[in-house]
Amino acid sequence: MISFMGLSQSILIKDPLTSYSFEKIKNPIYNQDSLVIIESKKSYNSEIFKDFGEHKEKYIDNYTSLVFVYSPKKYRRPYHIYQWMSPILIYFDESIPKPLKKSLTNLVEQIEEEDIQNLSISFVKDKDDANYLIRSTEKTFDVNFDFKNEEDKKNYVFNNGIYKLILGSAKKPRGCILELNVNNDQSLDILKKNLNQLFFLSLGRFRVFNDFKNQHSFINAFYQYTEELSEVDLALLKIHYNVIFNSPITKKEFRSILKTNL
């Protein structure tokens, strides 16, 4: 079992959407009572598991550890699955440096090339059209964790930024504000790493693990930056968005659904 850290560093906002806006700017998405829901199949598309080949069981174990982190196999605690049910429309504040924009754009393009079921991500030029805002902050963060050394602490994603999910019905994300401190003397590579990792984690309120073996996976607490989306992370997204769950689900129920579709 891989050990866990970092979930508490994301923030959930449960205020009614009609009372929330980015910097009080009118946003038509947030003035609607409901979202246009992407149609999803009620059973798993088993084709994705064929794509995983010999890594199928490993990827499934990674995912269940990620989502049902405190739940042993026979434990029946229900979990909310944090899945975006509307297209993600990203707006970069002008405070975000161009190299960081380019890096995240590259990541999003790789995700979109895979045509993942029930997941759509794009960029917009007008903040009023966005439901995902990325901006810089002067805030400082100090995660209370026993790091091995100062370098690990300095590079740790939640010591440099944070994301705040705005939830709609069934605890489904329908908006997000991602804040990154770009003025804290970090190298450009570290900032790219932090931005991309925060964004990926916000796609499912994913946790991070401090001893995950793949150093190029976003769920590794000490993720090593790379321009390429790892196969591990791609598999996580494909499993996560294969079917939309509108109510909490237990690990046992999830495994049962998988069993009938594999």
What this model shows, in words?
The structure is a single chain. This protein has 262 residues and is an alpha/beta fold. It has seven helices and eight strands; from the N terminus they run ββααβαββαββαβαα. The chain has helices at residues 47-52, 56-67, 98-113, 150-155, 188-202, 231-240, 251-261; strands at 4-5, 11-13, 88-92, 121-123, 132-136, 161-167, 173-180, 208-209. The protein has a six-stranded mixed sheet, covered by helices on one side. A two-stranded antiparallel sheet has the order 1-8. Helix 2 packs across helix 6 (231-240) and helix 3 (98-113) packs across helix 5 (188-202). The two termini are 23 Å apart. Mean pLDDT is 81; it is low at 1-8 and 15-42.
State the main characteristics.
alpha/beta, 13% strand
| Fraction of residues in helix | 25-40%
Count the helices. How many?
Answer: 7
Mass-distribution shape? globular
Separation, N- and C-terminal Cα atoms: 23 Å
Number of strands: 8
Q: What portion of the residues fall into strands of 2 or more residues?
A: 5-15%
Strand order of the largest sheet: 2-6-7-5-3-4
Average pLDDT score = 81
SSE pattern = EEHHEHEEHEEHEHH
Which class do the helix and strand fractions yield?
alpha/beta
Radius of gyration: 18 Å
Low-confidence stretches: 1-8, 15-42
Largest sheet: 6 strands, mixed
